[in-house]
Amino acid sequence: MITNTELHSQGNVFPGKLTSFDHVVDTLTFHADNGVILQVQIFRDSVIRFKYGTGGELEKDFSYAVEATSNRGYNKLSVVEKKNFYEITTSKIVCHIAKTDLKSRIFDLTGTIICEDELGFHYEESYQYGGEVVKMSKKAKPGESYYGLGDKPADNNLRAKRFEMWGTDQYAFGKTTDPLYKNVPFYIGLQNKVAYGIFFDNTFRSFFDFAQERHHVTSFWAQGGNMDYYFIYGPEVTSVVSVYTELTGKPELPPLWALGFHQCKWSYYPESNVREITSKFRELQIPCDAIYLDIDYMDGFRCFTWDNEKFPNPTKMISDLREEGFKTIAIIDPGIKVDPDYYVYQEAMENDYFCKRADGPYMKGKVWPGECYFPDYTNPKVRAWWADLFKGLIADNGLAGIWNDMNEPAVMGVPNKTFPDDVRHDYDGHPCSHRKAHNIYGAQMARATYEGVKKYIYPKRPFVITRSAYSGTQRYSSSWFGDNVATWEHLSIANIQAQRMALSGMSFAGSDIGGFAEQPTGELFARWIALGVFHPFCRVHSSGDHGDQEPWTFDENITNITRKFIELRYKLLPYLYTTFWQYAEEGTPMLKSLVVYDQEDAQTHYRNDEFLFGDKILVCPILEPNAKGRRMYIPRGEWYNFWTRETITGGKEVWVDADIHEIPLFVKSGAIIPRYPVMQYVGEKKIEFLTLDVYYTRGKEKSIVYEDAADGYDYKKGRFSLRNLSFKGKEKEIIISQYKDGKYMTEYETLRFNFIGLPFKIKYIEVDNVKISFKDLNYDQKTQTMYLDKNFVELHIVGK
Ligand code: GLC
Fold first, then answer.
1. pLDDT digits (tens, 9 = 90+) for 673-731
2. pLDDT digits (tens, 9 = 90+) for 315-357
3. How much distance in Å is there from the Cα of 263 to the middle of ligand 1?
4. Do the record's keywords include Hydrolase (predicted)?
5. In this predicted model, which residue has the larger pLDDT, 757 or 3?
6. Within 10 Å of residue 752's Cβ, how many Cβ atoms?
7. Which fold has domain 4-56+67-248?
8. What spacing in Å lies between the alpha carbon of 186 and ligand 1's midpoint?
9. FRET label pair with 763: which of 77, 154, 323, 790, CA 20 to 30 Å apart?
10. How far away, in angstroms, is 168 Cα from ligand 1 center?
11. Which of 383, 57, 47, 49 is closest to 201 using CA atoms?
12. Backbone phi, psi, residue 747, to 5°
């Protein structure tokens, strides 16, 4: 263990005494006598940015993550000079900056310490990097838990662990592999039921230590750049995530089909094979909305070209598939083949768009096509050029989305798997080396791709998926977790990664269902699909090395189970879409680990397996072979077993049956869950009515249903339909009231109510204060269903 004295003697420089202070609007600047500057910026009542400079200088602001347009403004700001510190007070928090060493301490309004510097900011001149290593250490409180950091495969709670951010191509990664593909330097601390977040906006190679090296200290540092971080006060974990997501940018709504089922493999070719696969889905009546073309569709792996032998008429094929309800998505990698006869290469050479080494030559590296050069996506001109390259694939050929891969960036056959440090980047007019641009490279590629797809698919909505990302990439793209393995351990890793990504502002994510490397057994595939349909992004993908991985690859029983779960996803599409809308509107995580759902219950702090899908459905995957069920923790409150409709009171661990055709699934009592009929793809059939499953409770619960045209941008002009439904249940009475917002006219006119757990026989029913006969409502006592006009305001049911 390193002691404080050792740290001080290791060449670390700490801020000296405060010599001057100034305050301009939302920004406070503290100057120390040794040239350290601390700039404190009040973003919101709950968000404070801390940026440090050394040598008497503060670098000019530039961030790829924080939107210039992100919500700012506070209700209150007072700054008072005290004997030993400055006291900054907003309507939510109090922050002290010490005069002796610029250390900060943050309190809530009751005076409880939320987050406190240990050694605080310090830095070290680094000869190796010709710059500084910037460091921050905070006190880790006993019992404090930590969450977040993007795609890390470790257990949910990060306490006593250490991590690195340096996007890396990690084929067949494992539970302890670090770093991984994505760079999300954001974590959440939870102590004494109060949560806060720290977003360290630094794209250099960075590190996080959650009380591992020193048990009472959490620290983070980067091999360059600035100590520049945002403190976000909760006190709820969910609000930390929402605010972080707003700060780094909320996503737009995807087209509804993108929430359907996607089928992928490396690779489906030639055209006849693609058609075989898509026909088989329709023949077996397994819903599917998207089919993927991996690298083999290209001519010699040259991006933006087609192999004309394998795909003689891609436009026709894509259009035929579209008729069948399939959206086609193709992969595009960053490596551009060095080939003087290839137009993309020529254009980039003519315009000087490729990355170069420090001494001038191009950055050359091997990827699928052999020797490649790589566009510098941190240059806005390159991004604009790249975006325009999509005209062919999107506008002309008719692809519905693009899959970006290998953008860490991955280079084959070199020990560090990526560019050397000295490669130059534009960094939007702030030229720098790869040390600074590495962690943002893939994110900027996804951004440029998104801009291109958006431009050429308009007036429809774009769909992009990326492997690498930095904080904020959720604005442009969905993502998957990279090259996992078909093992039971990886099923559990996928479960954790999906939850962690949701906690890290990137909800629209999922694993390669079934595993990328190696081949799953039918049982593992079935268990994985059962979990995967509850992940915001739902795609089967495999390397194809060990055989096929389609729903019909195993036996008929597995095919039927797969169909059943995919159908369940399609039924729940309006619920999932509503959940996405909440994410897009408020930054709410689409999946909630139990700690997010109920942080006040300490039992949830170390749980990994159970999570909430949206805010009403509890899911817990089966993660072992030969299981007939499992023990799981049911969070506090009343729940319905989705399959048996039995009720259970949470706050305890219980055994739940779930044979191979089931997954432990519970619905919060009082919830109203919207449902569509099963379709083979989004928009296949007219929706005759919207089913609302009402899970009776004695008490109150609010639910919402968001719908719109499922594609396009009319919703931004108010053409959406938002049903706010309040449920009130008594011993012998139910009242459901609806408040509607938005101008969108849904194609159905009727709501079908489906009551679950109704504890009484119905005496009479009133709709908007008028008694209605059972016949007029088509009330079926056996199934407990009835039909109502979609514009009802109040449904009043009185029991006998
Ligand atoms: C990478 C991707 C994988 C893809 C393969 C071929 O390994 O992670 O999803 O199938 O490259 O393009």
1. 999 999 999 999 999 999 999 999 999 999 999 999 999 999 999 999 999 999 999 99
2. 999 999 999 999 999 999 999 999 999 999 999 999 999 999 9
3. 14
4. yes
5. 757
6. 17
7. Immunoglobulin-like (2.60.40)
8. 27
9. 790
10. 13
11. 49
12. -75, -20
Residue 295 alpha carbon, nearest atom of ligand 1: 12
Q: What are the tokens at 621?
A: 């995957």
Atom of ligand 1 nearest to the CA of 294: 12
Using the structure block, give the residue that is written with the tokens 């010699």.
Answer: 300
> What spacing in Å lies between the alpha carbon of 720 and ligand 1's midpoint?
37
CB-based pocket (< 6 A), ligand 1: 266, 294-295, 331, 405, 467, 482-483, 541
Q: Alpha-carbon distance 600 to 782, whole Å?
A: 40
Residues assigned a catalytic role? 405, 408, 483
Please give the Cα distance from 655 to 629 (Å, whole number).
7
Domains 4-56+67-248 and 686-799 share a fold: yes
Q: Is the pLDDT of residue 450 over 60?
A: yes
Ligand 1 atom closest to the CA of 266, numbered from 1: 10
Quick one: which of 416, 425, 358, 412 has its CA closest to 167? 416
Mutational pocket test of ligand 1: of 366, 367, 516, the residue with most ligand atoms within 8 Å of the beta carbon: 516
Q: What residues does each domain of the chain span?
A: 4-56+67-248, 591-666, 686-799
The best mutation among 266, 301, 412 to test binding of ligand 1, ranked by most ligand atoms within 8 Å of the C-beta, falls on: 266
Domain 686-799 in CATH 2.60.40.1180: yes
The alpha carbon of 467 and the centre of ligand 1 are apart by a number of angstroms equal to 9
Superfamily covering domain 591-666: Golgi alpha-mannosidase II (2.60.40.1180)
**Position in ligand 1 atom list of the atom nearest CA 543:** 10
Residue 7, classed as helix, strand or coil, is helix
